[in-house]
């Protein structure tokens, strides 16, 4: 059994980790900066190095899963210092704390570390980061800080994350296609949606693998053989327009007219990646994963959201 500390536990991915932890042999400690009614949360500020060290020592933490980040892409442009603190400095703190106890840091990064170079083939892990905005740049700094710390790490870059929890594209479009007669959605940005539950399962699979390897190498100076950067999203490719069409179709919102439009019709302070499909060969081969197709996972999430609606 290992002690696993999850940061940002009240966000999309953190909430899916909470669900999975119920069936785990490991002990989970869920942390965030604020309490949410109905769920147990340990308050932890990951910009405070001493607070991290103290909790890691008290709870004898073996693995940290960092689900915390500054994720408001547009706002990041005018909030660079805070963005750098949460996306670059805080992961470095977590990395150093795990390095000190010989543990593992699992960190979630983003397709936004790419985007500056035009390309039309799926991005691979070793590709050079070319972020176009503050968010992507600070997330890239975070990756670099983790790698430079010397800790055993797994960095999962993901994209277009959605879930039953918090604010996300699926929930927004569910509402709009139900309420509005016409919705315009960009068709010139292409990527792959990722159901946060699938990503959480992948993280748990990797942690299980780490535990197994740690058991087999009971020496104190064990280094995880599969440490590194991995790409994870669901399978397939679509535009935001196609994504919206499926959300509406699967939820029976057929009265809404969904029209494709160009990105420049929605002015934004950030130039978003036009093609951010992630190549998942490495993660599938390393951990023996079967990655669900994006529409199959979308159906599951929508079914859960429908169920939640009926329960309330």
Describe it.
- This protein is α/β, with parallel strands linked by helices.
- Helix content is 42%, strand content 17%.
- The chain is built from 10 helices and 13 strands.
- Helix 5 links the parallel strand 5 (104-110) and strand 6.
- The protein starts with a strand and ends with a helix.
- The mean pLDDT is 95.
Briefly summarize what is shown.
The chain is of the alpha/beta class and 312 residues long. The protein is built from ten helices and 13 strands. The chain has helices at 12-21, 49-58, 73-76, 80-101, 134-149, 169-179, 196-216, 240-250, 281-287, 294-311, and strands at 3-7, 27-32, 42-43, 63-66, 104-110, 152-158, 161-162, 182-186, 190-191, 194-195, 228-231, 238-239, 257-261.
Key descriptive features of the protein:
312 residues; alpha/beta; 10 helices; globular
Shape: globular
Strand order of the largest sheet: 3-2-1-4-5-6-11
How many angstroms separate the termini? 36 Å
Structural class: alpha/beta
Helix content: 40-55%
- Our count of helices gives 10
Low-pLDDT regions = none
What Rg do the Cα atoms give? 19 Å
Main sheet record: 7 strands, parallel
- Strand fraction equals 15-25%
What is the residue-mean pLDDT, rounded to a whole number? 95
């Amino acid at each position: 059994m290992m002690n696993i500390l999850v940061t940002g536990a009240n966000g999309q991915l953190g909430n899916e980790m909470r669900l999975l932890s119920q069936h785990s042999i490991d002990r989970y400690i869920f942390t965030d900066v604020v309490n949410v009614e109905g769920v147990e949360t340990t308050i932890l500020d990951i910009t405070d190095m001493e607070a991290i060290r103290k909790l890691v020592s008290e709870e004898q933490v073996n693995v940290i899963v960092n689900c915390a980040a500054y994720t408001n892409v547009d706002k990041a442009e005018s909030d660079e210092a805070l963005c750098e603190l949460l996306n670059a400095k805080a992961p470095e703190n977590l990395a150093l704390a795990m390095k000190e106890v010989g543990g593992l840091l699992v960190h979630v990064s983003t397709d936004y570390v790419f985007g500056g170079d035009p390309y039309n083939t799926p991005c691979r892990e070793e590709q050079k980061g070319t972020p176009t905005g503050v968010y992507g740049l600070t997330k890239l700094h975070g990756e670099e800080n983790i790698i430079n710390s010397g800790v055993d790490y797994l960095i999962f870059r993901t994209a277009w994350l959605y879930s039953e929890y918090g604010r996300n594209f699926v929930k927004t479009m569910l509402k709009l296609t139900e309420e509005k007669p016409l919705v315009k959605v960009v068709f010139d940005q292409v990527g792959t949606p990722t159901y946060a539950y699938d990503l959480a399962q992948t993280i748990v699979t990797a942690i299980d693998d780490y535990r197994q390897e740690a058991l087999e190498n009971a020496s104190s100076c064990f280094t995880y053989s599969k440490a590194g950067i991995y790409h994870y999203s669901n399978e397939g490719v679509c535009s935001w327009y196609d994504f919206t069409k499926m959300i509406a179709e699967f939820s029976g919102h057929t009265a809404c007219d969904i029209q494709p439009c160009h990105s420049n019709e929605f002015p934004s302070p950030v130039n978003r990646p036009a093609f951010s499909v992630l190549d998942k060969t490495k993660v599938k081969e390393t951990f023996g994963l079967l990655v669900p197709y994006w529409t199959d996972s979308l159906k599951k999430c929508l079914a859960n959201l429908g169920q939640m609606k009926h329960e309330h």
